[in-house]
Design brief:
Elements lengths: L1 H11 L4 H32 L4 E10 L6 H8 L11 E2 H17 L8 E5 L12 E7 L6 E10 L2 E11 L7 E9 L2 E13 L2 E17 L4 E15 L5 E14 L7 H5 L2 E15 L10 E11 L10 E13 L12 E13 L36 E2 L2 E2 L4 E11 L10 E13 L5 E2 L2 E2 L1 H14 L6 E11 L4 E11 L9 E7 L4
Parallel strand pairs: 1-4
Antiparallel strand pairs: 1-2, 3-4, 5-6, 6-7, 7-8, 8-9, 9-10, 10-11, 11-12, 12-13, 13-14, 14-15, 15-18, 16-17, 18-19, 19-22, 20-21, 22-23, 23-24
Amino acid sequence: MDEDVDVFERLSSPVKPEELKAREQALNERIHAQQQKAQQRLAELIDSNSTLPVTLSSINVVGARRTRKDFLARIFNPLLSANHDRPYTLAEALREVAYSANQLHKFDIFHQPMSLYIDKPDPTLASSTPTDLVVNLSVREKSRLLLKTGTDLGNTEGSAYGNLLWRNVFGGAESLNVNASTGTRTRSAYSVGFETPILSNPDLRWELGGFSSATQKTWASHEEVLKGGETKIRWATKGGDKHEIGYSGTWRQVTGLSATASPTVRSDAGDSVKSSISHTWTSDGRDNALLPSRGVLLKTFSELAGWGPLKGDVAFWKSEVETQAAVPIPFPGVKGKTGITFTTGFRAGMLYPMALGGKTQAEPSHINDRFLLGGPTDVRGFRISGLGPRDGQDSVGGDVYAAGSANLLFPLPRVSPDSPLRLQAFVNGGRLLALDAPAKEGKLDGEAVQKSASSTVAELANGLPSMSAGVGLVYAHPVARFELNFSLPLVIRQGEEGRKGLQFGVGINFL
């Protein structure tokens, strides 16, 4: 009787939090151990039967209520044994199904994880065979509408933005993206873009969009207004390289000139129309785009405007190349990761004036087509657009440039080498030049442009580039990279604007 009373007392007495936590931990450990054993048994079972011949009789996607059946069929029907030229082994079938499930994940219309179940078909069906397997993929669709608002701060500008994303518009992983923002420098910016995969391929997409913006270009005493539309086709190769081909038609206006605007800015004031095609190629082997510790990036961009049937008011060929390499640095006495990385970057570009369709002579480049150089995201230690040609107080841009950097990044004391926070020491530099081809009545002779382009490229190597060095803090947020640097200009050419002291930068593409 006393034992029964003791049991009831223990059941009715409150459980201490420490004891409850210990029980929960023990229960979770038992469940985790059971799951591991089950996974191990499943792996052993699959491994022992990996060469077993099987046929895939059907693949069912469960839970895709708002996704079209013909869209899913293009992904999974080629896997069915009826559409396959040879029998599967069990290992091959699982590998092909897992690959197609990963392709489905790339569309970003389903939550993770997606559950995969394999079963035998109903044996009473006349069409079933002993080797048949049925694959069921259980998915949960993401919300169709996503609304985001927020604020951004960086690159000397603060802004507020709103974004509306409509997923899976017609049930084939299409998306409609609407953006609106306003800031201290960009007075207004609006864009809308519709994107759809082609033939249910997540690595082949088509996009159609429109945009409008008004931005204060304080370094050149004017405001630029843009309105236009564009269309793009993007695809990725099996090796991971990415390509993008696009067409853009843009009405540009150089307006809102300040009272002190230079003659160069005033001569380009007014309206112009750019009609261009472009191609971008990217090969990115870095382990982290914002804070790489190893790998190489290669990127090229080419644009052709106003040539032949493209029409418009401006004609040119514009080309840029960008490279970046990162290598981990070992440290004596430290095993494994040290968190010390040496990175180098290089960018170069040329704008080559051409004759508009039907004309024989080219026109000088416009201020809103030229390259700009300098600032916290490219050549640190200089003001935004602080390098290159100037007219009075205005930075008017250039036609040829080259810039490079070398950075040594290392972790803070007593901070994990995997931390996204780093100290950095850097040296960077660059040059931005204008073509010096003589213009006659506002026109350029083709032969003179060619000679000027060659001599300007050669001039890049004449003497030291504009340079700076410094130290700072780097933080790689999942969305963007933040840098706070103390910079000291070492070489400054006449008219260029260096920036000694602290400089803050935010972006996704740093030199």
